[in-house]
Design a protein that fits this description.
Layout lengths: L2 H14 L12 H12 L7 H5 L3 E3 L6 E12 L5 E11 L3 E3 L1 H12 L2 E2 L1 H16 L3 E10 H4 L10 E8 H4 L1 H10 L4
Parallel strand pairs: 2-5
Antiparallel strand pairs: 1-4, 2-3, 3-6, 6-7
Helix pairs in contact: 1-2, 4-5
Length: about 190
């Protein structure tokens, strides 16, 4: 991302909004906004293999692994406004497990870009499945969308829940039920 160009565009936007980019409170705003956008969209530049960084380990475990309440922050691709919430990831290993912190890093890898929640949920599930060749993966994302709460229909207490279930989480109802129960969805 060309931060200088984003700063210039932000300055132009301030003018279009009727602001004076030369007033004291806005003098450094264009540069701050450019740095902010670079961070919020850093998922475009990150590489999933670098994110996982070899933290895949041999394991004889074949029991469900679940990590709940992974915080996530993303930007709605329709309005470029934030949505935020939590992600739960569950999987059943097939001789390999992934470092638990890497689950959170996978979430950030896909969340730090313009997104829709449905695609984000699916991308996380597929990334975990591919990283460890899991028998099954389940991902649940629950988020609040600022495009729905601060504009548009202005429904302050609304949230959206999406799920993606792959492998045995999809094909085996008792496995899916165990995942949903452990995730607090039942």
């Amino acid at each position: 991302m060309n931060k200088e160009k984003v700063a210039w565009l932000t300055r132009e936007l301030l003018i279009e909004l009727g602001e004076d980019p030369e007033r004291e409170g806005l003098l450094a705003t264009p540069e701050r906004v450019a740095r902010s956008w670079a961070f919020l969209t850093s998922g475009y530049k990150s590489n999933l293999n670098d994110v996982i960084n070899g933290a895949v380990f041999e394991s004889e475990s074949n029991n469900m692994v679940l990590c709940r309440d992974i915080e996530l922050y993303s930007l709605c691709e329709h309005h470029m406004l934030p949505f935020f919430g939590s992600c739960t990831i569950g999987y059943i290993p097939r001789n390999k497990v992934i470092g638990v912190s890497k689950l959170a890093r996978i979430v950030d890898h896909f969340a730090r870009r313009l997104q829709i929640q449905e695609r984000l949920t699916s991308q996380i599930a597929h990334a975990v499945e591919e990283a460890i060749d899991a028998r099954g993966v389940g991902v649940i994302v629950k988020a609040r969308h600022m495009c729905m709460t601060m504009r548009g229909v202005e429904k302050q207490h609304s949230s959206m829940t999406t799920s993606s279930v792959l492998g045995c989480f999809h094909s085996d109802p008792p496995t899916r039920q165990e995942f949903l129960s452990l995730a607090g969805m039942n």
